[in-house]
Design a protein that fits this description.
396 residues; alpha+beta; Molybdenum Cofactor Biosythetic Enzyme, Chain A; Molybdopterin biosynthesis moea protein, domain 2; Molybdopterin biosynthesis moeA protein, domain 3; six-stranded mixed beta sheet; 7 helices; elongated; binds adenosine monophosphate; binds magnesium ion
Length: 396
């Protein structure tokens, strides 16, 4: 049995970032940049108007009501432009190139135009007003996004705007998921005595999808040594990380530990001083990581968030933690006995955290409305109302 901290340290020490791949930008979403992306062009690439209005020479405006002669217009995408010299103005629209000579754009709400003359009802007009400078967003040759950045929708929009169409990211891990338990029914089967519907695989797959992992292969094994060995063997061959659900306790029909042993996997730890999720096993076979998660749905999910997620963060090359930790005051007092640290399903509401009803490890309904876990080490087994506690925010 190891402590929570020891378990986390050993997992990080044994997790390695996967090799990099260069992929089309459209396929890179949810991945993490393995190299800095250098801006191939400046953004904006030319002086742009940020308003519908009139391009002018700002020093022409010496008092409100100054009149200027119109010399033409500049609309978005236009190539042939008038030149705005002293005493002149050009009609201009948002995103259009600012004509040579113009030093500011006055928004049309502050003007009135008739008969080829525009009156500027604004004073003073600062140099550069309503003009987006070349490279104001990013200069050509500058680091647009540093390595480790998530390829988010925003990042894709930014890079597309510079015609960057491929990026180098860390490979995403392929995950194998083994479901054990003779009591488990697949969806659609009719409920029979002694049986329950299998839910951990869909739950864990959803959690993996949420952080951008799409390659999830699910296998099922009966509670029997040979079947468990065969299923684990196949999953280990095809995947980077294998998660097993159930069959890791000390019951006569728990075969995951024995199967891993038979396959020559190294056990890095078995059992963590925590509640829920004590029977967690973490192991390795060559570079492949194995997490054997307890079958109780809430234990499975707590172990996923607390142990699998930090490993995936390192494997995927993310600079930011997937599970963010903050200190918040707790709404209600809480105490517990025993020698194990506790993880409580919780909700962050406003500036405080609420521990939810239904903390037993078979109860998953509380998880359905949780957005956080409270971590209470044994040294903090009695918390008063308003006391600061460590809160782990679940990915959304
Ligand atoms: P185990 O870890 O195999 O001893 O299972 C612990 C508890 O979790 C038992 O009540 C199981 O029926 C339940 N359980 C195990 N696997 C699943 C699963 N995939 N979906 C739902 N419940 C499960
Ligand atoms: Mg079982």
């Amino acid at each position: 049995m190891v402590t929570v901290n020891e378990a986390k340290q050993r997992i990080i020490a044994n997790s390695n970032t996967l090799p990099t791949v260069t992929v089309p930008l459209e396929k890179a979403g949810g991945g993490f940049l393995a190299k800095d992306v250098i801006a191939p062009i400046a953004l904006p690439p030319f002086r742009q108007s940020s308003m519908d209005g009139y391009a002018i020479v700002h020093s022409d405006i010496t008092q409100p009501g100054t009149e200027l002669r119109l010399v033409g217009e500049s609309k978005a995408g236009q190539v042939d432009l008038p030149v705005v010299n002293i005493g002149l103005a050009a009609r201009i629209f948002t995103g259009a190139p600012v004509p040579d000579g113009a030093t500011a754009v006055v928004m049309q709400e502050n003007t009135s135009a008739a008969d080829g003359i525009v009156m500027i009802n604004e004073f003073p007009v600062p140099d550069g007003k309503n003009i987006r400078r070349v490279g104001q967003q990013i200069a050509a040759g500058a680091v647009a996004l540093p390595a480790g950045t998530l390829v988010s929708p925003g990042a894709i929009g930014f890079l597309k705007g510079m015609d960057v169409n491929a990026v180098t990211v860390y490979s995403k891990p392929r995950i194998g998921l083994l479901v054990t338990g003779d009591e488990l029914l697949k969806s659609g089967e009719s409920l029979r005595p002694g049986k329950i519907y299998e839910s951990n695989s869909a739950m864990l797959k959803a959690a993996l999808n949420q952080i951008g992992i799409d390659s999830v292969t699910i296998s099922y094994a009966s509670d029997e040594l040979h079947a468990t060995i065969e299923a684990l063997k196949a999953l280990l061959e095809e995947n980077d990380v294998v998660l097993a659900s159930g069959g890791i306790s000390v019951g006569d029909y728990d075969f995951v530990g024995k199967a891993l042993e038979a396959l020559g996997a190294e056990t890095i730890f078995y059992k963590v001083r925590q509640k829920p999720g004590k029977p967690l096993l973490f192991g390795k076979k060559k570079e492949k990581l194995i997490f054997a998660l307890p079958g109780n749905p809430a234990s499975s999910l707590v172990c996923y968030y607390e142990y699998v997620l930090p490993a995936l963060q390192k494997i995927m090359g993310s600079k930011e933690p997937f599970l963010r930790s903050v200190q918040l005051p707790i709404r209600h007092a809480y105490r517990f006995d025993g020698e194990r640290d506790e993880f409580l399903k919780a909700r962050v509401e406003g500036n405080e955290v609420v521990s939810l009803d239904g903390q037993e490890s078979f109860v998953i309904g509380s998880f359905a409305i949780a957005n956080a876990l409270i971590y209470l080490p044994v040294s903090q087994n009695q918390v008063a109302v308003g006391e600061l506690v460590e809160v782990h925010l679940l990915p959304v």
